[in-house]
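INFO batch 0412 | record 1 of 1 | parsing
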Amino acid sequence: RSLRFGESRLNLVGVDYRPWHHLSEVDGLVEPGQFNLLLAHTPEVFPQAVQKGFDLTLSGHTHGGQINLDVLGTNFNIVDLHTPYTKGLYRTPTSAVYVNSGLGTIGLPVRIGAPPEITLVRLCNS
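INFO prediction complete | emitting tokens
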């Protein structure tokens, strides 16, 4: 969906969970000349989102790692074994992904080193 805010245009595209990390269903949905925002359940699609031309991807799915432990000065969580995009902002030269830690849990009803999060994202035309 293309949204207009004054003279600015935001192309908003969303996909549900994609365990196979493919974004073939968004082919042809990136709009040149607009800010292209992908809402994707899992951040693992981020490399494909970059290739397809999305400026920003907003994701969740990881619960911020849910249980983060300091091991010899390095953060470790089980999600790190599955994806490099666990929580927070990651950038490439042409795109970025923000992974929200969310409010819930999966499996064990506990969060250690992954506080619940609600994120306010403010997009500005510069």
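INFO post-check: DSSP finds one helix and eight strands in the chain.
INFO record closed
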